[in-house]
Amino acid sequence: MYRYVAPAFVTLVSAAVHTVQVGQSGLVFTPQTISAVQGDTVVFELFPGHNVVEGSLDSPCQTGDDDFYSGPYSGTDNGAKKFVVNVTSNDPVYYFCSVQRHCQSGMVGGVNIPSSGSDTIEAYSSAAANAQQAETPDQLRGGQLLDDTQIASLSSSASSGSASATASASSTSSASSVSSASSASSASSASATSAVASSALASRSASAATASATAGAAGVSCGQVSGITAIVLGVAAWLV
């Protein structure tokens, strides 16, 4: 469920680094439970006389072939190295200290443990109290011992990855804004061009109407002159 992945891969995918002290304040994991997501890294800081072993809710203080184990404190170079495990799923994971009767005494912890119901860390601890013995694997597995420099690179890479993701999102947003502004500008220009064309058409129509009206007025004036002339000639002929 939780497996160690080569450091080169871990540094690329780590979203967060969680640290758990193993036995710093007695028979406890500090914090006892943590919340993590796939891609996160859990760093177990071992203290003298303790270890950490992955177990299951159904078999408290027992471990399976695929579960992780930190190895004894003696393999940590007096605490200079921490046990690092990569989170490969969002499922609940229970673990315990297998030294002597630490597990039966309540030294248990977990990742993504339910806070209510029958699968809580309290339920696991209560069941562990009845275990006959705690099982210890033969050798380290499911993780790796790393020093502080190596662990610091994990945290740095996680921060860089987050910053890169933010920058990428910002760049995409800016590109969208530029595209929208360009589209709006094009639409505005097209609208302005259409308005100018309409204005020109209206102007031509007005000119045509004016010309027609002028021609009509000229026609009326000529008709009136002809009529008056005819009347004058008629009167003159009658007088004669």
TrEMBL record:
Matching Pfam families: Copper-bind
Domain (Blue (type 1) copper): residue spans on this chain: 20-113
Keywords assigned by UniProt, alphabetized: Copper, Metal-binding
One Gene Ontology MF term: electron transfer activity
Record's protein name: Blue (type 1) copper domain-containing protein
Organism in which the protein naturally occurs: Didymella heteroderae
